[in-house]
Automatic annotation (TrEMBL):
Pfam families: SSF. This is SSS family solute:Na+ symporter. The lineage of its organism: Bacteria, Pseudomonadati, Pseudomonadota, Alphaproteobacteria, Sphingomonadales. It comes from Novosphingobium capsulatum. It is a multi-pass membrane protein. Belongs to the sodium:solute symporter (SSF) (TC 2.A.21) family. The keyword Transferase does not apply. InterPro entries: Na/Glc_symporter_sf, Na/solute_symporter, Sodium:Solute_Symporter. Its main location: membrane.
């Protein structure tokens, strides 16, 4: 088992090393692959990276623990995210190309001519991306703990972190794109294999005790599920690493074509649901819901195959970690600490990567439960840049102050609801914040319109 796992990790490093061939020079080549990713690589990078370790562990764990409401939530936002990105993605590419942007704050700084807005968005994005790193390392911890229970967990996580740093250092976003092909092939293969074997070994008798005991742990109400679908589908287009992926495309049509094929990945979800139900019916020993996929794999597979499946899960987390590192690094080196030259940006990027990996691993050591629930915390805040971006597309009358005020009101509302426990009928606080954000932005634009601005659409005509 361990030999098969190590072989897959070694293969991923060789692929990352091979990705250096043809890589350009400078920050744009490092952070967004110079905007020259071909159709196949862009597809695997932009679509395949939607499905991370939270898909393989968090989704079946949520089905096992949360029942129907969780399924509605996860299916809904994944399905809706593709058309949202198909519509907004080409405009994000055009806006980035217009201003030569590498990050979200690059665009906002250039369009609204505001260093304050640039720094606020950059710092907010950095803070919100840390839970994504924690989520990946939490899943990696589950796998490594099951595979090598006798070794110290900090040492195992440090090894995973070094592999991620190697991806980043070897070829930047190109490495993430090339390794994403291997990750997706193994991830889909592992899900198809374990799902098919679960169906072949489907038990006739049902064990009702496990169902009744576990399902109450993570209730997901229908209002929360439906409102979270909206927040996450809209927020998906505003994720910093997704902007980097979009900027890496050769043109808007490549983005549309990739999103048109995105629903093909949905074939894995019925199989993951089957695995979760199989584990429940078989009453497999599951210490926590996020372990349900691995528990089924251990029950169904021989050792070497289990090693490959575990490698696929870990690789899913590490590829996402590398892309998040490549999103955080330019946020700091370009937007928080401006004035660094190209080489300095790449040197700082490696230091930022090491720090981010250390913080994410430390968060995972705290054993945060249910990977999928971390997703909702991330999307609360990341979606709040959407009103400002849409306003920039459609009108030149919006001021930077209006964008800042809208995001500030949203942040206060979300934090207030979380701290006080106030519930608006079970609606996701992120959606409440998004509505307030849009209202404040619209009112301030009507009261204090910008006189010298132009919309992105007008400038692109």
């Amino acid at each position: 088992m361990i030999a098969a796992f190590v072989a897959v990790m070694a293969l991923s490093l060789l692929i990352a090393l091979w990705a250096r061939r043809g890589a350009g020079q400078g920050p744009r080549a490092f952070f967004v692959a110079g905007g020259q990713l071909g159709a196949i690589l862009f597809f695997f990078l932009s679509v395949g990276e939607t499905y991370s370790i939270a898909t393989m562990l968090g989704f079946p764990g949520g089905v096992y623990a949360g029942g129907e409401g969780f399924v509605v939530w996860f299916f809904g936002y994944i399905l809706l995210a593709a058309p949202v990105l198909a519509v907004l993605g080409p405009w994000i590419w055009r806006a980035g190309n217009l201003y030569g942007a590498v990050t979200i704050p690059d665009f906002f700084a250039a369009h609204f001519n505001s260093r304050l807005l640039e720094r606020v968005i950059a710092l907010g994005a950095i803070a919100l991306l840390v839970p994504i790193g924690t989520m990946q390392f939490a899943g990696i911890r589950l796998v490594l703990g099951a595979m090598a229970p006798g070794l110290p967990m900090p040492l195992l996580l440090a090894g995973a972190g070094l592999v991620v740093m190697a991806y980043v250092a070897l070829a930047g976003l190109r490495a993430a794109a090339f390794v994403a092909v291997l990750k997706d092939a193994l991830m889909l293969g592992a899900i198809l294999l374990v799902g098919a074997l679960a169906l072949l070994h489907w038990p006739i008798a049902t064990t009702p005790v496990a169902t009744a005991t576990v399902a109450a742990q993570v209730p997901v109400t229908l209002p929360f599920a439906l409102s979270t679908i909206a927040v996450q589908a809209l927020g998906f287009a505003m994720i910093p690493q997704n902007w980097a992926f979009l900027f890496a495309a050769r043109g808007p049509q490549a983005i549309v074509r990739a999103q048109a094929a995105a629903p093909l990945y949905m074939v894995m979800f019925p199989l993951l649901m089957a695995v979760a139900v199989f584990a429940r019916r078989m009453d497999l020993p599951v210490a926590k819901p996020d372990f349900v996929f691995l528990a089924a794999a251990q029950h169904l597979l021989p050792g070497w195959a289990l090693g490959v499946v575990m490698a696929a899960v870990v690789l899913a987390g590490m590829v996402i970690l590398s892309s998040v590192c490549l999103a955080i690094a330019p946020l700091l080196t370009r937007n928080v600490l401006p004035g660094l030259d190209g080489r300095a940006q790449q040197r700082w990027a490696q230091g930022v990567t090491a720090l981010f990996i250390a913080l994410s691993a430390a968060g995972a050591m705290a054993q945060v439960p249910l990977l999928a629930m971390l997703n909702t915390v991330f999307y609360f805040g990341i979606v709040q840049t959407l009103p400002g971006f849409l306003a920039a597309l459609w009108t030149g009358r919006v001021r930077a102050g209006g964008v800042l005020a809208g995001m500030g009101v949203a942040a206060l509302a979300i934090v207030g609801m979380r701290l006080t426990g106030v519930s608006a009928g079970g609606i996701n606080p992120g959606l409440i914040g998004l509505i307030l954000n849009s209202v404040v932005l619209a009112l301030l634009t009507l009261m204090f319109p910008r006189r010298d601005g132009h919309s992105v659409m007008a400038m692109l005509r």
